[in-house]
């Protein structure tokens, strides 16, 4: 044993002393050997692929090699960070850093933003003391004969830059603790640098606090400049504070307020562009090509900062207590958050942190309670099955105990994917669509799982059955599979409409896609209708229990709103299906040449995310084909479109009367109004197109002629989720169509 | 080294995954594992570190510090080193090739 230890120690010593490797010059051997190779012949490691080779950086290529120095250029920037700066120059440097910092927040790399500050570069350089200084760490202290102004300037700049670095450090930590996509959304790469991990926020706060009175007491400078500098220090101090203790929400609003004054006081600055250089990239560890230093206007940067702070304020507003207890409201909240314009990873990380950071949402609602509330609100309002008290029953023979364990078993399997419904919304739009398509088969499998549990529950509770008035068949509620199926159908519809939004369908594919959307909405409406019947039935059954009755009534209203929205979706989708199919068949919407595509291949490509669905299988290629072939006359089709739109509009009138409590849009009232308005506008746009097509049909006849007279553009002007055909007469035959 | 193409290829193959030091015309040196090469002496290195001679400023700084410290003897300045990962060094810039070990 001791022998082994001493041997290891000896080996370690040898390894240490051998760190300077012995090398042998092989230039000649290598050269003559490579001369013997055939042109194009490669000698390569068998595990090394040419695919990897493509990613290699080409040395001495100015576009690829970040270490390349153009002839006549110097390796390092000329500006020495220890150079004295005037206070107006200092102001400019601080603002420039603010510009670069927000560009980093918006997704650019530190190497092309914050790290291009030569002051920050110096502070992050090697051999710095524990509290870094702007002066060369090897070349001693400050330059001689610094004036008081210059000395204050350096102190302010040091404290400010150190605080910026720490803020970046904490943002990296926060974003990395949640779901995000490196390079795609945000670059956390530090290029071999460390962001002062050994310095605590307290120390840095102390530095900021130390320079503020020095600056305040200094008389030999314009009040404007002094005030501007103090504002920036205050802003930095708050940002640092709110990042280290995120319970202080109102501070984001304070920052918003400060930004307004910061923005206008930039005019007192004097430019010092030499203090920034992308030459720092030559010393940063990186496996990427050099990236240009970013330039952005001051106005633009201020707007971005304000937007980011506003998003964070919105996170807090959207996740108020009244919202987080209602799964439906919370889902609307994450959607509303996702649709708030320009995205920044920091607010998204804060949103995820609130939702998933501690064991409970906002520290209040456990994920399981949220899921149980969702199941209750949707399918089992007023039922003892989902009464939290039932889960407390410990008598193993009690049916409530047995049922609770069954439901818990199901929730165990459902919880992860269910929470993804909230988490996914903190990604970018394309990601959202992609991850939802991946969750379709998972929810489908959940339906299968739930069906088994429903059978078990039915055995124990022998719950009531209803009879279908049309077919005369009896059916049961099957609560859990109905719940899972609702989500599956809704997610499928979402993926289609997110597809409209991200413009993945070509105009000639829209007819079929709308038909599929109408089918899915129809299934969802029928499902909701059945669930509603059971909930109404239950409210009679539990009439002795006032709380249960109230729960049922709330759920009824909610189900009615879901049903109405589903029906509106179906009706508009049907109208657009018919309209697009008509326009495609008359050639107004042209089909592009597709040399290698067959109907079958097109179907498979588009339906790929849905083909694996086992419960409610998707329509076949033949059915799809049939649906996208136009039947009947132009006039008749336009009439049908009008009918659908009329019906949808009637339903919208009802929807507009629903209160936030009924349709569960507490906390997202604005967005709800906007959505309803978007649907109304879409209805009108569809009706307008239908009437134009009808008129054109009367004028030019129904067939081939139309394509030569009309042109069609698919537009999303009225609502993000609806692509509507817009008809115009071709210039050659411009006669008013009204 | 007069040798057959087969021997040449075998020699180069024996160098694969060894750490090479490639000195190039602008004075830099790259140390990384040989992954691939061809008849133009283009060289792909993985896990590469870039070494650069200290700049004039670095030397001045070091000299100033050395003087201040009052020590005698020679001034020592380290090469600047950074990680650059996977690189291809075009043959035309290669001036010297060394192998470790």
Automatic annotation (TrEMBL), chain A:
Q: Which family does it belong to?
A: Belongs to the MAK10 family.
| Domain NAA35-like TPR repeats, residue spans | 344-697
What superkingdom heads the lineage? Eukaryota
One Pfam family matching this protein: Mak10
NAA35-like N-terminal domain segment(s)? 39-204
GO cellular component term of the entry, any: NatC complex
Q: Which InterPro entries does UniProt cross-reference here?
A: NAA35-like_N, Naa35_N, TPR_NAA35
Q: Which gene encodes it?
A: MAK10
Keyword Cytoplasm applies: yes
Q: What name appears for this protein in its UniProt entry?
A: N-alpha-acetyltransferase, non-catalitic subunit
Starting at the broadest rank, the lineage of the source organism is: Eukaryota, Fungi, Dikarya, Ascomycota, Pezizomycotina
Key word Cytoplasm present: yes
Keywords attached to this entry:
Cytoplasm
| Compartments it resides in | Cytoplasm
UniProtKB/TrEMBL annotation, chain B:
The record's SMART domains line, in alphabetical order, gives:
Sm
- Name the UniProt record assigns to this protein: Sm domain-containing protein
Q: Which organism is it from?
A: Extremus antarcticus
Q: Which SUPFAM superfamilies does the UniProt entry name for this protein? A: Sm-like ribonucleoproteins (SSF50182)
Record-level GO cellular component terms? NatC complex
| One Pfam family named in its UniProt record | LSM
What are the residue boundaries of the Sm domain, all occurrences included? 10-99
């Amino acid at each position: 044993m001791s022998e082994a230890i001493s041997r290891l120690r000896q080996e370690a010593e040898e390894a240490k002393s051998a760190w300077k490797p012995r090398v042998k010059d092989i230039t000649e051997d290598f050269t003559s050997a490579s001369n013997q190779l055939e042109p194009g012949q490669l000698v390569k490691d068998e595990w090394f692929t040419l695919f990897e080779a493509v990613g290699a950086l080409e040395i001495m290529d100015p576009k690829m090699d970040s270490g390349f120095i153009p002839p006549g250029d110097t390796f390092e920037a000329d500006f020495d960070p220890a150079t004295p700066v005037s206070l107006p120059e200092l102001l400019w440097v601080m603002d420039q850093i603010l510009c670069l910092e927000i560009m980093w927040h918006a997704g650019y790399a530190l190497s092309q933003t914050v790290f291009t500050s030569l002051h920050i570069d110096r502070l992050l350089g090697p051999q710095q003391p524990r509290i870094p200084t702007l002066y060369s760490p090897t070349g001693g202290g400050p330059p001689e004969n610094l004036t008081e102004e210059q000395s204050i300037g350096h102190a302010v700049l040091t404290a400010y830059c150190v605080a910026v670095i720490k803020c970046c450090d904490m943002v990296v930590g926060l974003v990395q603790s949640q779901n995000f996509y490196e390079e795609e959304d945000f670059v956390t790469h530090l290029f071999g640098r460390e962001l002062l991990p050994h310095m605590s926020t307290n120390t840095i706060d102390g530095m900021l606090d130390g320079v503020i009175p020095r600056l305040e007491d200094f008389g030999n400078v314009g009040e404007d400049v002094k005030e501007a500098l103090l504002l920036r220090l205050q802003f930095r101090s708050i940002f640092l504070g709110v990042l280290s203790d995120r319970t202080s929400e109102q501070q984001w609003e304070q920052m918003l307020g400060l930004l307004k004054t910061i923005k206008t006081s930039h005019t007192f600055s004097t430019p010092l562009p030499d203090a920034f250089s992308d030459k720092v990239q030559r010393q940063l560890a990186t496996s990427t090509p050099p990236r240009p230093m970013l330039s952005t206007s001051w106005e633009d940067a201020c707007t971005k900062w304000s937007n980011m702070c506003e998003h964070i304020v919105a996170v807090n507003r959207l996740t108020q207590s009244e919202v987080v207890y209602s799964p439906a409201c919370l889902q609307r909240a994450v959607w509303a958050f996702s649709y708030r314009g320009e995205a920044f990873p920091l607010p998204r990380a804060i949103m995820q942190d609130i939702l998933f950071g501690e064991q409970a949402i906002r520290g209040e609602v456990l994920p399981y309670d949220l899921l149980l509330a969702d199941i209750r609100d949707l399918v089992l309002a007023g039922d003892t099955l989902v009464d939290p008290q039932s889960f407390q029953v410990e008598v193993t023979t009690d049916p409530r105990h047995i049922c609770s364990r069954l439901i818990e078993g199901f929730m165990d399997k459902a919880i992860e994917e269910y929470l993804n419904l909230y988490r996914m919304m903190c990604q970018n739009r394309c990601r959202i669509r992609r991850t939802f398509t991946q969750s379709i088969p998972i929810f489908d499998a959940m339906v299968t799982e739930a069906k088994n549990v429903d059978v078990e529950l039915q055995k124990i509770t022998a719950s009531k059955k209803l009879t279908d008035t049309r077919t005369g068949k009896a059916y049961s509620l099957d609560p859990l599979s109905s719940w899972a199926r609702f989500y599956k159908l809704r997610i499928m519809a979402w993926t289609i409409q997110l597809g409209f939004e991200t413009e993945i369908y070509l105009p000639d594919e829209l007819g079929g896609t709308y038909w599929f959307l109408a089918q899915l909405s129809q299934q969802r409406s029928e499902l909701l209708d059945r669930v509603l019947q059971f909930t109404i039935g239950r409210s009679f059954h539990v009439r002795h229990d006032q709380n249960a009755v109230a729960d049922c009534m709330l759920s009824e209203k909610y189900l009615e709103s879901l049903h109405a929205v589903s029906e509106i979706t179906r009706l508009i989708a049907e109208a657009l299906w018919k309209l697009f199919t008509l326009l495609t068949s008359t050639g107004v919407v042209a089909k592009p040449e597709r040399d290698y595509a067959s109907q079958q291949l097109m179907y498979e490509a588009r339906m790929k995310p849905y083909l694996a669905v086992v419960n409610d299988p998707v329509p076949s290629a033949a059915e799809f084909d049939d649906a996208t072939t136009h039947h009947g006359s132009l006039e008749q089709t336009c009439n049908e479109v009008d009918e659908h739109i009329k019906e949808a509009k009637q339903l919208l009138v009802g929807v507009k009367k629903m209160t936030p409590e009924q349709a569960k849009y507490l906390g997202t009232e604005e967005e709800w109004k906007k959505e309803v308005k978007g649907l109304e506008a879409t209805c009108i746009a569809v009706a307008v197109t239908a009437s134009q097509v009808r008129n054109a049909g009367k004028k030019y006849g129904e067939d081939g002629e139309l394509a030569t007279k009309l042109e069609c553009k698919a537009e999303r002007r009225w609502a993000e989720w609806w692509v509507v055909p817009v008809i115009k007469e071709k210039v050659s035959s411009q006669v008013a169509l009204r | 080294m007069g040798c057959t193409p087969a021997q040449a290829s075998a020699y180069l193959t024996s160098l694969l995954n060894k750490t090479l030091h490639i000195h190039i015309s602008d004075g830099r040196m790259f140390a990384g594992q040989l992954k691939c090469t061809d008849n133009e002496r283009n060289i792909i290195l993985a896990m590469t570190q870039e070494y650069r001679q200290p700049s004039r400023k670095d030397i001045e700084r070091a000299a100033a510090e050395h003087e201040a410290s009052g020590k005698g003897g020679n001034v020592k300045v380290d090469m600047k080193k950074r990680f650059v990962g996977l690189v291809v060094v075009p043959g035309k810039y290669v001036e010297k090739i060394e192998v470790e070990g």
